[in-house]
Amino acid sequence: MDPYEIEFIGENRIVNIIPNFSHDKIFLICGEFGPFRAGLPMNVPLWLGVMLKQKQKCRIVAPDWMDIEVLENIKEEEKKSRFFTKMPNEHYMVEAKLILGTAAEDIPRASEIKTIIKDIWDIRMSKLRTSMDALMKTGGSYGRLDHLTMMEINSVKPLLPQAMDELHRIKMNARKTMPVQSSLNSAVSQPGGSQSIL
């Protein structure tokens, strides 16, 4: 999957909006939404909420996890643990990017939230790079990393398979040369072996 596909999946997450207009129920391929009543909160897919916000037709309500205290706790836990912690939202980066990019004025302390989310991403990426480095150095052929999101996995996708292929190629070449090397050693070590080589 490429980043655009992951973003497309993330855009289908349900968010809470407060419309400033009234309208009957709308019927879409992904489901039906509405009726829309001015001032009454309702749930819609993220992409629809963003579209309505861009047309100044609603306010987007911050998801529960998009809170300074919640995010600070996640950041601290992520820093302390050598393992990846479970994120409150599988598509936290997509949701944060779209909501904070489109409706920053609707989110209390939006700039601080943006900074903490970036910090969490950086910590997790650093852990991921360290894990990959350890995997390569130990010569492992697979690794298990729990609680990674699709976007985080995708960030190492261009590098990891290629590096693993190269590592496998080096191992296979080493195996091919080992029997040749051991047969040469045994020939030299046999009595009269040095004469047969000369």
Automatic annotation (TrEMBL):
Coiled-coil stretches: none
Domain DNA replication complex GINS protein PSF2 N-terminal: 2-61
Pfam family, one: Sld5
Domain of life: Eukaryota
UniProt cross-references to CDD domains, sorted A to Z: GINS_A_psf2, GINS_B_Psf2
This protein's record includes keyword Nucleus: yes
UniProt GO BP: DNA replication; double-strand break repair via break-induced replication
Cellular component aspect of the GO annotation: CMG complex; GINS complex
Keywords: DNA replication, Nucleus
Subcellular location: Nucleus
GINS subunit domain sequence ranges: 65-168
Residues annotated as signal peptide: none
SUPFAM superfamilies: GINS helical bundle-like, PriA/YqbF domain
Protein family (similarity comment): Belongs to the GINS2/PSF2 family.
Subunit structure: Component of the GINS complex.
Protein name: DNA replication complex GINS protein PSF2
Gene name as annotated: LOC106127031
